[in-house]
Design a protein that fits this description.
heterotrimer, A alpha+beta (221), B mainly alpha (220), C mainly alpha (191), B: 220 residues, globular, disordered C terminus, C: mainly alpha
């Protein structure tokens, strides 16, 4: 069998030297890489600007009426307004905060991402550290099934249920709620997506609430 | 091989040899992202850019690419254009880029592009390859738009986000779900097949007894 | 529900690679006319998918951290090489299998399922084991879809189907029905 294949191969004519093959491919690869790097450098400023604008818009949605906004970085187990020189802020977890015209803190805005039913769900929520309440929630990215899971965006009753709710949140099926604080009515037919949305907020708060408390105690500016 | 004119090169991809509707290539993006016209346009334009760019480049370099590694070379070229398209989309239309997601990268394995390189660009002049790519690219966009229009209008009640039937329309959500994609393309292809059959002149359709008569004659 | 188990079940049934995520449609439409070929194609796919998931895990963690824009080219080169290696291995170990699969092996390179797996695994940030579960589940789901379609088509070959329905269009409508059935898996877990 192998002779058969070998004979067929030589029938095609003298084979090109492996050196030529590899060098051609390497040239292609090098030029390709160069082109990609050039375009990357050209488009990066616009991409970063878009991302910053989108984040800013999301923050103003959940913390409306702010006169001044500030970004806090999680570094070394603490929330800080300024990172030490030389530390890259890109991979750090960020917590956003806003102040009104009287320089009173409106609250914190926290972004959370977790796997949803289909793909990752990314949302931002506002948090009042003093009253320990969620101020509101906005789903930024989701790819849930249209008509089912995507109701976490489209069902206004569900979204409004996150306004001024005590933490930790608990999801209950519609009609099964006892009226206790912290209850959120889950969407019928989209209980998993609802539960994941609530879970994102709870998990983020579990982790960040102590940090926020410590930050405020240290007299966060 | 017939001497196809430049006009033929350009126009064949639009309908007669449409990459999606006749050659049935490029199914994955056609089904996956056609649930809104906006996404369809973006994907169509991105694929068009990659197809034309790759065809022109492959055709210009066709004498320099050794036969053994031609597929790999084509794929490297296509992947470069796709990466460029991805970054440009992200900079210019970030929301649509997010909705298209991983399917932009999947343009690399869109059989249409590789098929055109292998079947045409590698063997023809730059100008003819350019025309061929433009025709095929537009054909792809036409097919996408047809799919998107049906799916978004029926499945969401909107066209490009504008309501078509008014607020009381109960959308056929199934059309924007995966089965809807399969059904829409399937029925479109069936409709086209039925229509072409009706157009084909009767004598050209083979009839079983014609064949048997001939063989019987041969034996005698 | 453990994360890894959920990823496995999700990619196999709930978000089936072929019928819900629209990956791997070229072989699905082209190879699905015989159950045996479907099984073989499915197994070859699973093998390549699992190897790709492992390679992508390593690439993402160690190589691509500093140059994310080279991701696509790196993935496609790795996939092309993997398929080449698998092809050579099958040629050596089982020449009959090699002859049976014919053109379909190199087609795995352009199979959107493999590159799709790499891209989704990256965008969802799966760790090593989640990536493996994703590949195994996805591959099994792909094979399942192939086998289901192939068994239907084998029956159709023996039934009297109007000639106007013979062709890809009908297969797509059948796929739509299968897809509809698989959407029922969305209710698999209520918690």
């Amino acid at each position: 069998m192998s002779e058969h294949v070998h004979a067929a191969a030589t029938e095609l004519g003298p084979s090109v030297s492996p050196f030529k093959l590899i060098s051609t491919l390497s040239v292609f690869g090098a030029v390709a890489g160069l082109l990609i790097v050039v375009v990357f450098q050209a488009t990066q400023p616009a991409v970063l600007r878009n991302q910053a604008a989108a984040t800013a818009a999301a923050i103003t949605e959940v913390l409306p009426g702010g006169a001044r906004y500030q970004t806090l970085f999680e570094h070394d187990g603490k929330l800080v307004a300024e990172v030490p020189a030389g530390v890259d802020t890109v991979p750090l977890e960020k917590v956003y905060t806003a102040f009104d015209t009287a320089n009173e803190r409106l609250g914190y805005a926290i972004i959370g991402t977790e796997p949803g039913f289909v793909d990752n769900i990314k949302l931002i929520f506002g948090y009042d550290a003093g009253a320990k309440q969620v101020l509101g929630m906005l789903v930024i990215e989701q790819k849930e099934t249209p008509g089912l899971g995507d109701k976490i965006v489209k069902d206004t009753a569900f979204v409004n249920g996150f306004t001024r709710v005590a933490t930790p949140l608990r999801g209950v099926k519609i009609g099964a709620g006892t009226g206790a604080s912290g209850e959120i009515d889950m969407i019928t037919g989209a209980t998993i997506s609802s539960r994941i949305t609530i879970g994102i907020i709870n998990h983020q708060l579990e982790r960040l609430q102590p940090l926020i408390e410590a930050y405020e105690k240290a007299g966060g500016a | 091989m017939t001497h196809a004119t430049a006009r033929d090169d350009l126009l064949k991809g639009l309908w007669k040899d449409n990459p999606v509707l006749v050659q049935t290539l490029g199914m994955c993006p056609t089904l996956a992202i056609t649930n809104s016209v906006e996404n369809g346009i973006a994907m169509g334009v991105a694929t068009f850019f990659v197809l034309v760019g790759s065809s022109v480049l492959v055709s210009s370099l066709r004498k320099l690419i050794p036969n053994e590694i031609r597929i790999t070379a084509y794929i490297v070229i296509i992947a470069t254009f796709v990466t460029v398209a991805d970054m440009v989309l992200q900079a210019v239309v970030p929301v649509i880029h997010k909705q298209l997601g991983a399917f932009i990268a999947l343009i690399v394995v869109n059989c249409i592009i590789l098929a055109r390189q292998e079947a045409f660009a590698a063997k023809n002049t730059v100008w003819r390859s350019f025309l061929d790519a433009v025709g095929m690219g537009f054909g792809f966009i036409i097919a996408l738009l047809l799919m998107c229009a049906i799916r978004e209008v029926l499945g969401n009640g909107t066209f490009l986000g504008h309501s078509v039937f008014g607020p009381n329309y109960e959308p056929w959500v199934i059309m924007v779900l995966p089965p809807g994609g399969f059904f829409t393309l399937g029925f479109m292809l069936l409709a086209i097949a039925a229509w072409s059959r009706r157009k084909a002149p009767r004598p050209l359709r083979a009839r079983p007894h014609d064949v048997t008569l001939q063989t019987q004659k041969a034996v005698v | 529900m453990g994360d890894v188990l959920w990823v496995f079940v999700s990619s196999m049934l709930v978000n089936n690679f072929t019928l819900i995520m629209f990956l791997g449609l070229c072989p699905f439409l082209g190879v699905s006319n015989k159950v045996e070929t479907g099984i073989r194609m499915g197994l070859a796919d699973i093998f390549v998918l699992v190897l790709t998931a492992i390679a992508v895990s390593f690439l993402n963690r160690f190589v691509l951290v500093s140059a994310p824009y080279l991701r696509l080219i790196a993935f496609i080169v790795v996939i092309a090489s993997l398929v080449q290696i698998v092809e050579m291995a099958i040629k050596k170990l089982s020449p009959t299998l090699f002859r049976e699969l014919g053109i379909y092996l190199p087609l795995i390179t352009t199979n959107c399922a493999v590159l799709g797996l790499a891209m989704f695994q990256t965008s969802r940030g799966y760790n090593f084991f989640e990536g493996l579960a994703f590949a195994l589940g996805g591959g099994l789901g792909l094979m399942l879809a192939l086998v289901l379609m192939a068994s239907i088509r084998e029956h159709l070959d023996l039934a009297s189907v109007p000639s106007v329905l013979k062709g890809v269009g009908f297969v797509l409508v059948l796929a739509g029905t299968l897809s509809l059935a698989f959407m029922g898996f969305a209710g698999l877990f209520t918690s």
